[in-house]
Automatic annotation (TrEMBL):
<feature type="binding site">
    <location>
        <begin position="119"/>
        <end position="121"/>
    </location>
    <ligand>
        <name>NAD(+)</name>
    </ligand>
</feature>
<feature type="domain" description="Lactate/malate dehydrogenase N-terminal">
    <location>
        <begin position="5"/>
        <end position="143"/>
    </location>
</feature>
<dbReference type="GO" id="GO:0004459">
    <property type="term" value="F:L-lactate dehydrogenase (NAD+) activity"/>
</dbReference>
<dbReference type="GO" id="GO:0006089">
    <property type="term" value="P:lactate metabolic process"/>
</dbReference>
<dbReference type="InterPro" id="IPR011275">
    <property type="entry name" value="Malate_DH_type3"/>
</dbReference>
<dbReference type="Pfam" id="PF02866">
    <property type="entry name" value="Ldh_1_C"/>
</dbReference>
<dbReference type="InterPro" id="IPR022383">
    <property type="entry name" value="Lactate/malate_DH_C"/>
</dbReference>
<feature type="binding site">
    <location>
        <position position="152"/>
    </location>
    <ligand>
        <name>substrate</name>
    </ligand>
</feature>
<comment type="function">
    <text>Catalyzes the reversible oxidation of malate to oxaloacetate.</text>
</comment>
<dbReference type="InterPro" id="IPR001557">
    <property type="entry name" value="L-lactate/malate_DH"/>
</dbReference>
<dbReference type="GO" id="GO:0030060">
    <property type="term" value="F:L-malate dehydrogenase (NAD+) activity"/>
</dbReference>
<feature type="binding site">
    <location>
        <begin position="10"/>
        <end position="15"/>
    </location>
    <ligand>
        <name>NAD(+)</name>
    </ligand>
</feature>
<dbReference type="GO" id="GO:0006099">
    <property type="term" value="P:tricarboxylic acid cycle"/>
</dbReference>
<keyword id="KW-0520">NAD</keyword>
<dbReference type="InterPro" id="IPR015955">
    <property type="entry name" value="Lactate_DH/Glyco_Ohase_4_C"/>
</dbReference>
<feature type="binding site">
    <location>
        <position position="89"/>
    </location>
    <ligand>
        <name>substrate</name>
    </ligand>
</feature>
<feature type="binding site">
    <location>
        <position position="34"/>
    </location>
    <ligand>
        <name>NAD(+)</name>
    </ligand>
</feature>
Amino acid sequence: MARSKIALIGSGMIGGTLAHLIGLKELGDVVLFDIAEGIPQGKGLDIAQSSPVEGFDANFAGTNEYAAIKDADVCIVTAGVPRKPGMSRDDLLGINLKVMEQVGAGIKKYAPKAFVICITNPLDAMVWALQKFSGLPKTHVVGMAGVLDSSRFRYFLAEEFKVSVEDVTAFVLGGHGDTMVPLTRYSTVAGIPLPDLVKMGWTSKEKLDKIVQRTRDGGAEIVGLLKSGSAYYAPAASAVAMAESYLRDKKRVLPCAAHLSGQYGVKDLYVGVPTVIGDGGVERIIEISLNKAEQKMFDKSVAAVTGLCEACMNIAPNLKK
Ligand SMILES: NC(=O)C1=CN([C@@H]2O[C@H](COP(=O)(O)OP(=O)(O)OC[C@H]3O[C@@H](n4cnc5c(N)ncnc54)[C@H](O)[C@@H]3O)[C@@H](O)[C@H]2O)C=CC1
Ligand SMILES: O=C([O-])CC(=O)C(=O)O
């Protein structure tokens, strides 16, 4: 059977890390695309030269031409700019929206059957615009944020409880911004919900609140440390989990920015919700019940994403369709 073809649109810090992880996992052949000349070619060659040491077989092609992504099975989009300290993700909207228009046109022309995972920020508005610019089915255009935010939450919880990260589950819903909604009620250690662990004396409500806030600020914490860009190891790993679930039809339940058409009372918006990802793309959106406080936080997050999509429509009126 031919190997899958995975196109990485953007070959910066996340793009290069994606290519390396895809090689290590033998998920398929990789095309690295970027507008910067030499960067995708150089990273592709460097990673290919690590394959004899690691023992993986895959092709790595670097390119500045969209034609090279022809018939890709998966496209992972990181093209654009990351934030610097003092900026919010939303400050990237104007510049990255223009990039999404070019990327959408390239995917529409050369890889219209691909499963597209958008990573570029501000995530929920960019994936919404990318779907419209590309015209690909809504089941096949999805945003990566929830897997990353949930992974950060899981890591902080595992650290607090001194247990394996493998035994911690967590769900973070809503937009990928300051209003994201880490759901303590649906997060567990070995199936025991966090509120029960507070009752059992494993932690306190105050400590849990601090972990929730640290999760919300997870991206900014790394931007503050790196100073020159944003996180890339955990974001790349998160997108690879989504690509793997699609390519291997694993049907994993993953929180993703998915197109909502009435679910959670939201229409024509991308917001982070639990989904099932399989060879049909986003095969199911899981509607979990939210209590009053959770619903209020979710509504606030949806309002923030709505505002960003409106800002996109003001810049690009053709998005109104
Ligand atoms: N959704 C999420 O959870 C996360 C999103 N991000 C976002 O991902 C994006 C990428 O981050 P990094 O890889 O760290 O940035 P980076 O700056 O290292 O790489 C971005 C690449 O995009 C390229 N690029 C710029 N305009 C382009 C265009 N028109 N067409 C093709 N390529 C173009 C640049 O040349 C650069 O190589 C940023 O917007 C960042 O905010 C970052 C972390 C997590
Ligand atoms: O914070 C940023 O700018 C990058 C990002 O989205 C994250 O790491 O969650």
